Amino acid sequence: MMLANPGGLWALALIPLLLLLYVLRTQRRRMAMSSVRLWRGFGEELEARRQWRPPRPNWLLALQLAVVVLGSGALARPTLLQVTGGTHLVVVLDASASMGATDVPPHRFAEAQRLALGQLVALGPNDHATVIRAGASARVLAQAASPAQARAAIEQTSVGEAPGDLRTALLLANAAAELPAGAPRIVVYSDGAYAPPLLPQEPVAPVEFVPIGQRDDNVAVTALALRRPPSGGATTGFARVVNFGSAAVQVPARVLVDTLPREVRTLDLPPGAAATLTFTVPPGARTVAVQVDARDLLAADNRAEARTPGSGEHQVTVVSAQPDLLVRALRALPGVQVAAVRPEEYQGARLAPLVVFDGYLPPALPPTDVIVVNPPPGGPLPVRGTAAAPGVLGYDPTSPLLDAVEPAALQFGRLVRLDPPAWLTPVLWTSDGPALLEGTHEGRRVLVLAFDLRASNLPRLRAFPLLLANALDWLGWDDPGGTVRAGQPVRLPALAAGRIEQPGGGQALPPGAMAYAGTERVGRYVVPAARPGDPPAAEFRVGLLAPEESQLAPRAQPALAGTGPPAPLATPALALTGGLLLAVLGLHVAEWWWWAKRS
Amino acid sequence: MKLQDTLLQLWRSATPRPTRSVRLRDEAFLRRLERLALALQRPPTGGLAGDHRSRRRSDAPEFADYRTYSPGDDFRRIDWKAYARLNALYYRQGEAQDEVTLYLLLDTSPSMDWGTPNKLDYARQLAGALGYLSLARLDAVGVSTLDPRAPRLEPLRGKGQASRLFGYLDALATVPAGGAVVTLGESLRAWRRTARRGVVVLLTDAFFPEDAPRPPGDTLPQRCAAPLGELAGAGFEPVLLHLLSPQELAPELTGDLELVDCESGELVPVSLTPETLARYQARLEAWCRELERYCSARRITYVRLSTATPLEEAVLGELRRRGLVI
Asked: Which of A157, A165, A532, B174 is in the most buried spot, having the most CB atoms within 10 Å?
């Protein structure tokens, strides 16, 4: 027996209500009699005066209780399960980057598809199949579907270039195995190139692991980082190349700067050995790539690409009558280009993706990320007045805005007292109101410094550039190392909409998208600017950079679940809802008949 | 009480009762009634000549008794054969035939205007039948109600007066609820002052109002039958026809009810279950049995009738079996 809608059993809560109706008395009917003297003095008379009474055995009550019970059962939509010969095949396809290895032509994933399709051939018309793709995120491609539908789902999917989420895939498989679609059987097609997954505590069905892959020849770039020394100077690049194969290789490694070869080195790598490449990035370089020209089984990890820090891609517009303080502090941050605009020139000015307003606010905020300093009254932020020299009362120590910033050292000469709207959250507050607030409004991120910068000691503190740097990080402008690992989500600039161009084609971005998680392909991702000719709204490069995926040696997996005889085959045989509803109808008729007979 | 009375009036006005005519139209039934006669426990002792054997002796040809001769007696009725044997003069007396006065007393209290068939209708039909058979037997028939303020029908004689009898019965109405409380004893005492001796048939449901708290040991049947006992002591021959409707004998009620006394307006909340109904019926049966026992101890004829009993069966069957008519 299975309940398709267990919530229907909540209707059983009507039983106490029904009993309450019988316990509580309703208005007594008044009946004229020739004389009441023979009715006086019964014990029931006293009881009849009470407002409640214990429920007595009553056919009507019994019928109504039966109606409630059967009606609840009907709402729960019970299905009688019957042992049959049907099978529910749950196929888990590992679509991680390692499954793109070509040791099994054309590649491992294609082999997994072929084997899975072979399993489907054995299924009969009463059997069902579920297909789960364990890519960067696990997805169910077909659930308890017919073999033909499962075949189509397997044929249409493809391998990714990111680490796979096999653990979630196994959880989904376990849940699918509980469906009443036949005797469950979970089959995982994988090369084992993943960290040991955390299996469900109580697997519903035996899990069979079908290993894919034969060889391990692979050299991979497993790390790439570009760093600019804090003291200034040239940017240095670090790369790590690992030979995951069981044979020594000699591979040329090329460093490309803005797609042009900069340096070529030949690496002699014994089995399992790693080599570290260190190189200098010339000034003005925007991107750096490291590529090993190895004839190995997996191409996705042969190249890694990164954007150089401080490559001038972050444009900031400062709107202020006295922008010198902010411009100087922002320019000190790597990769930030600042343009100052006077308030009277704001209308018609070309705005950068981040606009900093100091002592000025237009009637409506622009469609960009915004930092507001010293908001004036009459703008979109409600200002109640100012307060002089308030002390810091408290702050949110978990806020990334205050990372490495000591709030106790701050002194505010003049605080702008705000009535913050609901979308703004105070991060630092004084005795006269919040001084630092953050929030997201209509797709744009907004940071408010509700004090006069020049009347405070902040510009003289080391915390000033730190606060601005934290603000840029909070706005999603951080890209440590300049690379994004495949499968990792990326924060998008404010109001990034339209399309994102990525390896393998473009994809639509919904309005108000704050992040993008479809980084399953290695390569360059670009969010074009809204206006043609403007620099891209966002650009990032995705590399595999996952050693566990680059290690292609077929690995024997421990038993993923206890083996044993298959669970009894169960398929839905009879939906009981109709019968229960008929029974409810019959009971209603009986209740009506009983009531009519009594009255 | 005023609210209860108002409720009762509303209930009455909302449930108009069709009144059945007392006039007996079944000729065959009338003929059968004419063949019946009241059966008396005590022969009459005077009055006009009638159809009933009297305790009074007369010069009628039917021999009844001897008495010693007194001067002045008609010596044609001296039994000479007895004189020859006994050497004494004995006067032969004949059996007198006297009329009997039948008084029909109807209870017209509101409690009688209840039930299906209606108790008052049934009482009027029954009174009409008894009155007709008495008129046909040359008896006098008087009718009145227990309401001392209501007009009476003085004794009628002869079958030709049957229409007057039926007309009076048709015009009877119930006493309005909430009116002056008149107990059975008061009614009978008031009525007795103007009545001759005779047979008194009281048609009632015996639900009489209580004028005062009952003293210890006083039971409901006593309270009802005691006034009848006074009548018997005064030379009347009382008969109690106890009329109950089927709804009183076997009520078919269930659930939580508030019972309203249609005379007093008293409210009694009850929760009716099969057990409660069984207890009620046991109480009713005990009440009737005690009433019957009390009546028989005082030579009062007691007949319990359900208004569901057809009139013919009641008169020709039940009353005949109980010796009220022969």
From this structure: A165
**pLDDT (tens digit per residue) in A139-153:** 999 988 888 899 999
Q: Do A230 and A332 sit in the same domain of this protein? A: no
A482: left (phi over 0), alpha (psi -120 to 50) or beta: left
Quickly state the pLDDT bin for A272 (edges 50, 70, 90): confident
Q: Which residues of chain B make contact with A36, given a CB cutoff of 8 A? A: 259-261, 264, 266-268
Same domain, A231 and A302: yes
Tell me: the pLDDT tens digits for A274-294?
888 888 888 888 888 999 988
> What distances in angstroms separate CA A250 from CA A44, A245, A262, A274, A285, one per listed residue?
105, 12, 20, 12, 29
Residues of chain B in contact with residue A45, where contact means CB-CB under 8 angstroms, are: 268-270
- Model confidence, pTM: 0.46
Nearest residue, CB atoms, A56 vs list B261, B273, B287: B273
Best of B268, B277, B287, B288 to mutate (most A CBs within 10 Å, chain A): B268
DSSP type of residue B220? H
Last residue of a domain, one of A265, A292, A311: A311
Residue recorded with tokens 């606009």: A355
Of B119, B220, B280, the CB nearest to A39: B280
Q: Cβ contact (<8 Å) for A29 and B245? A: no
Q: Token pair of B219, please?
A: 């039971």
Do residues A120 and A243 both lie within one domain?
A: no
Contacting residues of A for B257, CB less than 8 Å apart: 28-31
Within a domain: A503: no
- pLDDT given at position A109: 92
Q: Which residues of chain A lie closer than 8 angstroms to B206, CB-CB?
A: none
